[in-house]
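yo

u said u wanted the structure for the complex thing, so here. seqs first:
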Amino acid sequence: MKFQTPHSVEDAVAILVADPDARVLAGGTDLLVRLRAGHMTPSAVVDIKRINGMRDITSENGGWRIGAGVACAEMGEHAALKADYPGVVEGAELIGSTQVQGRCTVVGNLCNAGPAGDSVPALVAAGATVRVAGPNGTRDVDVIDIPTAPGKTSLKEGEFVTSVFLPARAANSSDAYLRFIPRTEMDIAVVGCAVNLTLDDAGVVTAASMSLGAVGPKVKQVDASALVGSTCDDAAVEALAAAATAAATPIDDKRGTIAFRKDVSGVLAKRAARAAYTRAKGAST
Amino acid sequence: MSRIHVNTTINGDAVDYLCEAEDTLLDVLRDQLDLTGSKEGCASGDCGACTVELDGRLVCSCLVLGAEAGGRTVNTIEGMADGDVLHPLQKNFIEKAALQCGICTPGILVAAKNLLDHNPDPSEEEVRYWLAGNLCRCTGYDKIIRAVLDTAAEMRGAA
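structre next:
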């Protein structure tokens, strides 16, 4: 195995095009486990963290661009990012331990394409996009279109994700992410739910989006229109919960049954909606 | 295949080594540099026994390639005591019996020191969450948590 440290996106793409068995290394918290277990034997590891911008969080068109090498802990330490997207950041900060958070990245979490990735639902609810670099230049792709099935992505040969972009926040907007795990820390989501809301000055929801993790082969976008026009009152939140339960298509496994996961999807939808609503209101006063 | 030459800084000293692309930082520390304080428990980032600081941030050295450490700063358990003078965390772990077999102890000490460097007055809950990635199969954690909290109080008082 070779170890490569390209200093430009173009050089990284050239390596990946020339060597289809090469694998991209960002935080390494999934890749190294697979290497170690012998589940993967790449011809080369391409460390993208030495490329300019890969480790930066930058303001762009009123939103945020997060490089593919930014550790989740660094997102948690970025006060302005956290103020705009507390739900995205709390998802990122639920991955693994303190030590894992010092290395793991949201782009890695996305491209790992695990159905239960904790940072992915809030990115989807936020309408985030990723920038994909490849032999034909760069393209921007909606986050939800990157994973296609467990462990599979829509990335083509020679392509890799260089950053994720969170759009500019409208006034009175916020988000929240909650997951259910049987422990209190260091576990994989049995269900994850993100809700992203925008309110008007009177506290009425004008835009709402919701996303579920771990209840299907990939992250799910769920219709959250039940909240629009409401003040997140009990009836609206119950309707949202029903939509979440109906949309969830989980499997039965040792971590939870289908019925349990569908029920928890509704419970988390309610709680995440109320948390996002409280935050969005707080942002307006 | 030629080995990779890496220049780095470990516990304040300039260090260089040759490693294979597959070698983890933990492999290099233990097998090449004789820094065997960092332990291999799970080799999958779950147990925290190999915890070190990389550019001041806690990482599992089993999830870092040795080749990645070039030009960066690594701090291990071997750098914690000042010569023969133990760090207050080390002293308190001994005095308060916050260890039994000792395999998890170096990783917990490195992680706890990193916490106290950033947050001199953590709550019990903050200590427990911070150390959630450091597994101990002997102590039941309570003495560890108390030793960290007592050390924090002692260090604040001494300052």
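Chain B has a mean pLDDT of 96. Helices of chain B lie at 25-32, 88-95, 105-118, 124-130, 142-158.
cya
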